[in-house]
Amino acid sequence: MNNRICEILGIEKPVIQAPMVWLTDAKLCAAACNAGGMGSLGPNAGQTTVTRDPVETAEHMRAEIRKVRELTDKPFNVNILPPYGDTKDIFTPPMLKVIYEEKVPVVTYVGGIRPELFAELKEHGIKIIFRSLDPDPDEAREAVKYGADIIVATGFDEGGTLPDMTLGTFSIVPLMVDAVDVPVMAAGGIYDSRTFNAVMALGAEGAYCGTAFLMSEESRMAENVKQAVLKANAKDLLLFRTIPAYYRSLPGALANKLVEMDKAGASNEELGKTMGGFANLRKGMLEGDMENGYVSVGNGISFIHEIKSTAQIIADMTKDYH
Ligand SMILES: Cc1cc2nc3c(=O)[nH]c(=O)nc-3n(C[C@H](O)[C@H](O)[C@H](O)COP(=O)(O)O)c2cc1C
Fold first, then answer.
1. What separation in angstroms does the CA of 177 have from each of 210, 317, 320?
2. Which pLDDT does position 253 carry in this prediction?
3. I need a surface site. Which of 16, 52, 251, 297 has the fewest CB within 10 A?
4. How far, in Å, is the centroid of ligand 1 from the Cα of 209?
5. Does the beta carbon of 25 sit less than 6 angstroms from any atom of ligand 1?
6. Ligand 1 binding pocket includes 155 (Cβ within 6 Å)
7. Which residues, other chains included, contact 51 with Cβ-Cβ below 8 Å and sequence gap of 6+?
């Protein structure tokens, strides 16, 4: 395939293995790159422990970036998450230092628009894939004004931190395609050629997928979780409110409790505190403790029936495009 996404990113197939905190690592990232798509390293990629130290977090990323380079010479990206609003951003500056020093070619910028960061990334010749947690056309246009090269339109079908607005992938993708001149990638519930073809028909020029790659041979998600996801389908997933908006999880003691709390009218802050942030995602998905942690996957799981290699997932997804 050769379209605008492939040209901008220097890849052969417009499919990105999206950032997913601890669930990403050099192995999965390089597998996506070597299959002609693009892999991402999310925060804490390749790690098993939690650190709250920004410099240590960035240095861990440096080590993982170097591992990617041992496994592929293709372009890849690193995820940055500048906070929304006035929250002090302690993680992005040391992460950017590493990104510049290691000459990472692309970032997935997910979070609040900070014009000075866009300018800095552009000065370093880095391509910017911008994804809002809560996509809206005005914000996308603003990101493009500051230099975003690609916009990701994320629908409510996705796994991970869900948008506050509940537009499905089918609704948000054309809205964003009409809003900007740069190419749009679709995220949320894309896992095979049917869903890939559908978002391309809606005007997207590529797919940005998390859940599909969690279920790959190369993914470091715990084996018992992979087996549980294979048996589950989208209607098994529990939905609850939390900070910043919604989350989905396979059932388990913690997820069941969050749903009960939500029904009983607990505040978002109480729900967020009980949920325990990404540490409990790590517990559920990396360590396989599905009772005390949670398992965040997207609605696409209904149709994932086998664990395939990352290369096979990308080949199957794009099989109708040459
Ligand atoms: C377990 C999990 C962790 C995630 N972590 C991150 C993250 O660290 N940074 C980020 O920008 N998005 C994160 N996401 C969102 C993905 O990058 C992507 O947008 C989403 O998975 C696409 O929807 P899909 O899962 O239906 O393919 C995460 C998603 C999942 C499922």
1. 21, 21, 22
2. 98
3. 52
4. 8
5. no
6. no
7. 44, 57, 60
Q: 133 C-alpha vs ligand 1 centroid, how far in Å? A: 10
CATH 3.20.20.70 boundaries in the chain? 4-219+306-317
For Cα atoms 235, 241, 244, give the angle at the middle one, nearest 5 degrees. Answer: 125
Q: Whose CA is nearest to atom 29 of ligand 1?
A: 160
Q: Biggest alpha carbon distance in the chain?
A: 52
Cα–Cα dist 172/167, whole Å: 6
Residue 262 Cα distances to 161, 255, 292, 295, angstroms: 16, 11, 18, 17
pTM of the model: 0.97
pLDDT in tens, 116-168: 999 999 999 999 999 999 999 999 999 999 999 999 999 999 999 999 989 99
Q: Is the CB of 41 under 6 A from ligand 1?
A: no
- Measured by CA distance, the residue closest to atom 21 of ligand 1 is 210
> What is the model's pLDDT at position 52?
87
How far is residue 102's CA from residue 80's CA, in Å, rounded to a whole number? 15
Query: What is the residue with the minimal CA distance to atom 5 of ligand 1?
Result: 20
Q: Is 82 in the pocket of ligand 1 (CB under 6 A)?
A: no
pLDDT tens digit sequence for 109-122: 999 999 999 999 99
